[in-house]
């Protein structure tokens, strides 16, 4: 009997990068990085500070241009586009609705002098929504979705706790039903008890809405919980990649072994 | 009866880079064939590599050489050469694994930990929860616990949640790592009954059963793993 080494045949890859390189002065931030992402997949990029993971996120999302290599993405119409050759308006349009970005610090994306509902509605309006009643109702639904009391819809974000602000940022990002979301240390600045709630929330929403995510984190437990696949970066290079459970339970590269063995078991 | 799992020449060596690169060969030349409805018990002294083999069959550990052929959608697929997405598809539909310990996810209630296996295959939530509830009741998990996250449950309760999660999917190949280790006699008998029923449905099982009574009750044959010599 034969035994196939079959791959999934249909090529529906959402994003792919080849040979990315980027240098900041003496520092090689990216050095020959390849990556790809399937629809509905959560890919974690892990490594210590300075390993190049945030730079990779910025290049994959078109916020930075690599010195060498390319990124192609599938646009909403299903066509492959060379990300860094896209005209600026097309890239901005992608970021307005089809893509989302969740920052470690929600204050970087939220408008602190605009109400919670306004922060969510703004992204819908940028996408073309005009009906006030529908925008407000959708904002209230999304507040509920991220476990914020919809009665807070007219409150300013500055009255929210850190965990609530992060959940508001997630509501604002997901309201347009993006296919691809970039997340940079989304649980980074939060208390551990708040982290668990947020992780569970992200995990549920991503699975239910079938969103693809590139998740940058230095926390291996976060990667274990959210990501199907993991890339380990060190000094701008990808040193190991595979299914999350493979890489964390059977790490091969010396650096991955060091990372895994440095985590304290609670 | 058809082959549902077969390995050829599996070998696995751990290289511990943090311990000056010491190499620990654990598996070499493993050839095992399992047919539909069969239960094979892995045997051998502690440290011989039984758990390593089980984890390798699941592609949790990555083998150095050899093939791991698992029946998936009517064909044998080599997990040792498969891309990550294929491995996930095989795990979702064809190959189940019950680890010794439950990995707890914060806030997710026991019933949903179990139901998740089905909802991931697009089974409606209500139906998935009903089936999870049935299985939890069969494993003597009282209803008041079903809506609670298992983090605070006892070892035996967590193991039964894990078993429910492993059995609910009805995977045609099931890997069991010490499924009865922390169970009392009554629950052990429930698990033996579940294994018998699975075998009768044609499910192939590879397991580690330290409990001699359980092993005698479920295993059709033993697969002996001899410890390898350490390479210097």
Chart the SSEs and their pairings.
The complex is a heterodimer of chains A (266) and B (232).
Chain A: E1 15-24, E2 27-37, E3 42-46, H1 53-60, E4 68-74, E5 80-82, H2 88-98, E6 99-102, H3 116-126, H4 132-145, H5 162-174, E7 180-184, H6 192-209, E8 212-216, H7 220-226, E9 229-234, E10 237-243, H8 244-249, H9 254-261
Helix pairs in contact in A: 3-4, 3-5, 4-5, 5-6
Chain B: E1 3-16, E2 22-35, E3 39-43, H1 50-57, E4 65-72, E5 75-78, H2 84-93, E6 95-98, H3 110-119, H4 125-138, H5 143-146, H6 155-168, E7 173-177, H7 185-200, E8 204-208, H8 212-218, E9 221-224
Parallel strand pairs in B: 3-8, 3-9, 6-7, 7-8
Antiparallel strand pairs in B: 1-2, 1-4, 4-5
Helix pairs in contact in B: 3-4, 3-6, 4-6
Structure report:
The complex is a heterodimer of chains A (266) and B (232). Chain A has helices at 53-60, 88-98, 116-126, 132-145, 162-174, 192-209, 220-226, 244-249, 254-261, and strands at residues 15-24, 27-37, 42-46, 68-74, 80-82, 99-102, 180-184, 212-216, 229-234, 237-243. In chain A, a hairpin with a 5-residue loop joins strand 4 and strand 5. Helix content of chain A is 36%, strand content 24%. With 266 residues, chain A is of the alpha/beta class. The model of chain A has no long low-confidence stretch (mean pLDDT 92). In chain A, strands 6-7-8-3-9-10 form a six-stranded mixed sheet, sandwiched between helices. In chain A, helix 3 packs across helix 4, helix 3 (116-126) packs parallel to helix 5 and helix 5 (162-174) packs parallel to helix 6 (192-209). Chain A contains nine helices and ten strands. Chain B has 232 residues and is α/β, with parallel strands linked by helices. Chain B is 36% helix and 27% strand. Chain B is built from eight helices and nine strands. In chain B, the strands form two sheets. In chain B, strands 6-7-8-3-9 form a five-stranded parallel sheet, sandwiched between helices. Chain B has a four-stranded antiparallel sheet with strand order 2-1-4-5, with helices on one face. In chain B, helix 3 (110-119) crosses helix 4, helix 3 runs parallel beside helix 6 and helix 4 packs across helix 6 (155-168). The longest helix of chain B is centred in the C-terminal third of the chain and has 16 residues, at 185-200. Chain B is globular and about 50 Å long. The termini of chain B are far apart. In chain B, 42% of the residues are buried. Chains A and B meet through helix 6, helix 8 and helix 9 of A and strand 1, strand 5 and helix 2 of B.
């Amino acid at each position: 009997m034969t035994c196939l080494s079959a791959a999934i045949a249909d090529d529906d890859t959402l994003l792919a990068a080849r040979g990315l390189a980027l240098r900041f002065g003496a520092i090689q931030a990216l050095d020959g990085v390849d990556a790809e992402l399937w629809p509905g997949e959560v890919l974690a990029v892990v490594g210590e500070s300075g390993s190049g993971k945030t730079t990779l996120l910025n290049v994959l999302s078109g916020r930075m241009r690599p010195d060498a290599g390319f990124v192609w993405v599938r646009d909403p119409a299903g066509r492959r586009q060379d990300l860094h050759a896209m005209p600026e308006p097309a890239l901005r349009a992608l970021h307005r609705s089809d893509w989302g970005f969740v920052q470690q610090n929600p204050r970087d994306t939220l408008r602190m002098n605009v109400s919670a509902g306004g922060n969510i509605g703004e992204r819908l309006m940028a996408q073309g929504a005009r009906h006030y009643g529908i925008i407000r109702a959708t904002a209230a639904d999304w507040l509920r979705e991220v476990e914020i009391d919809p009665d807070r819809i007219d409150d300013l974000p500055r009255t929210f706790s850190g965990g609530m602000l992060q959940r508001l940022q997630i509501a604002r990002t997901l309201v347009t039903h993006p296919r691809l979301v970039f997340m940079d240390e989304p649980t980074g600045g939060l208390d551990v008890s708040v982290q668990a709630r947020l992780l569970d929330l992200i995990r549920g929403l991503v699975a239910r809405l079938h969103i693809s995510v590139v998740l940058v984190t230095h926390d291996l437990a976060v990667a274990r919980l959210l990501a199907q696949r993991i890339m380990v970066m060190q000094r701008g290079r990808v040193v190991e990649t595979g299914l999350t459970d493979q890489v964390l339970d059977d790490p091969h590269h010396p650096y991955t072994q060091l990372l895994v063995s440095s985590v304290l078991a609670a | 009866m058809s082959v549902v799992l077969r390995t050829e020449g599996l070998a696995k060596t751990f290289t511990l880079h943090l311990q000056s690169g010491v190499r620990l060969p654990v598996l070499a030349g493993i050839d095992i064939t399992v047919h539909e409805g069969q239960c094979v018990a892995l045997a051998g002294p502690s440290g011989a590599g039984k758990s390593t083999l089980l984890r390798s069959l699941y592609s949790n550990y990555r083998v150095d050489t050899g093939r791991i052929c698992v029946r998936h959608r009517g064909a044998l697929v080599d997990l040792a050469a498969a891309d990550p997405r294929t491995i996930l598809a095989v795990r979702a539909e064809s190959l189940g694994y019950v680890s010794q310990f439950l990995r707890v996810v914060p806030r997710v209630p026991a019933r949903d930990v179990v139901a998740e296996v089905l909802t991931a295959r697009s089974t409606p939530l209500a139906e998935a929860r009903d089936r999870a509830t049935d299985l939890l009741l069969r494993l003597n998990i009282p209803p008041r616990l079903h809506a609670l996250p298992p983090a605070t449950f006892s070892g035996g309760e967590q193991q039964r949640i894990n078993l429910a999660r492993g059995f609910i999917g009805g995977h045609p190949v099931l890997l069991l790592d010490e499924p009865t280790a922390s169970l009392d006699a009554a629950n052990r008998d429930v698990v033996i009954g579940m294994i018998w029923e699975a075998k009768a449905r044609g499910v192939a099982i590879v397991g580690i059963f330290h409990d001699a009574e359980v092993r005698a009750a479920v295993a059709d044959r033993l697969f002996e793993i001899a410890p390898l010599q350490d390479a210097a």
